[in-house]
TrEMBL record:
Keywords: Transferase. GO terms for molecular function: transferase activity. Residues 179-311 form the BioF2-like acetyltransferase domain. This is GNAT family N-acetyltransferase. Signal peptide: none annotated. It comes from Sphingobium fluviale. The keyword Transferase applies. InterPro entries: Acyl_CoA_acyltransferase (IPR016181), BioF2-like_GNAT_dom (IPR038740).
Amino acid sequence: MDMASLPLANRVAGAPAIAEWHLLAAHAAEPNPFYHPAILVPALRHLEGAADVRIIEARNKDGALTGLMPVVPKAHHARYRVQNSTNWMHGQCFFGAPLMQAGAEAQAWSEILAVLDAAGWAGHFLHFDGLDADGPVATALERLCATQGRGCKRIASHERAMLRSSLDADAYWETHVRAKKRKEIRRLINRLAELGHVTHRRLANEDDASQWAEDFIALEGAGWKGAEGTALGNARETRAFFRDAIANAAQDGLLDMLRIDVDAAPIAMLVNFRLGRGAFSYKIAFDEKFARFSPGILIEIDNMRAALADSSLDWSDSCAAPNHPMIDGIWAERRRIVQYRVALKGRGLQRLTRRAAFAGIGIVEDSISSMKGRRP
């Protein structure tokens, strides 16, 4: 897995050596497997939009890599035709925090923003998505912008389900799930057992991760996502990305997969990516012929129990949409995800133009919000 072997390497600025990239990811202030080379490199190889991505590095005075962020120039920002740059969050990426060495977040942000300030392709501002509002990366960004007199505005936020608890699985289940729902789940488990031999498995070292990946592709493709054309296996690009990401993640210790089988055939599968002491739920699929047994809920319960029993994990991020009807009823904690618009600096006319664009969009958005607030 060598960055230099990428077909798009000439379009990716400042790509670091894989070894130092791995080291940064392992010691990042906020773990983000989606920007780990195991997953980001396959994205750069296979996914739409990768040809325009720039990898921005931050290095300290000794030359050590302290930050890494993939960015892409955009011609539009929301409804506005104004050039900008954004952190690259493709359709298979559910967290946007750049990799930054713990304790060096301010220095890393300073270097990254300086690169964007000097880049003509960067547009008028940086639009940043997918940050933890309470995490050290967002905190360092806000503090640095205040110190530099640089505009920095939170423009959107939402909450999504998270699992973070010192309770064991049984206590968590009893505390956070209604008795009526617990009873219904027990009934479904008993009914499912009447159909055949049910096994609940977690990927182990002796298991073939590539075969589990193929099983997942087949399971997801047989359901409504396959019918709508949105399953991983429907497109050559996403299928290739998934296979490479699973293989790399298994090799680098990031992969966690669970499955429920009936008579050795999968009826539900779930993929997590792990990094540091955190985990991110990436994909879930289930056999719709078993829908009356709620296999999606059953495997999420397996996932919850496995996570809470794992002493190497402190938390799991659901990566789910806000107000998700299923996971919100099982995981009680929440993670607040935010977007920012960050002003870029420059010289001469560029500096004035960037300042005007940043201020102008803010004025327009504030006016629209004010008008909506006055409507009866």
